[in-house]
What does this fold into?
Amino acid sequence: MSERSWSRFFVVAAVWNLVIAVPIIVAPEWSYSLTYPDEGASDAVLALWRDFGITVLLIGLGYYLVSRDLYRNRGIVIVGLLGKLIIDVIGIGWRYLDGMASEVALFAAAVDAVFVVAFLVFLLRFPDRPVQASDA
It folds into this structure.
């Protein structure tokens, strides 16, 4: 993919995180019950859930920063890849298999699995610095 295509891709990644984060921040009780329908949520759990939403939002901001400079912000991509893989793909996948998480949560984890693969492709195939004419 071209530099422009990757930049657009990371804007999409930022928007996806925004779409996930806003309901968690604004309506934590509703979004928690949508994600974990059979699990009760104390005030402390809902506070941590809202904090998770803020973290998702901040990582989305990181993806936007990547879109603005693909070369300098690769570390954000590594953090995002690991977070999506460990927390979403493995964590939510495990919780779904265990009967805790809903199909809605599994769908979000599946979308994040696609981002994990794309982030890996970016890290492996996109150069870590601009290609100079002398490098070609």
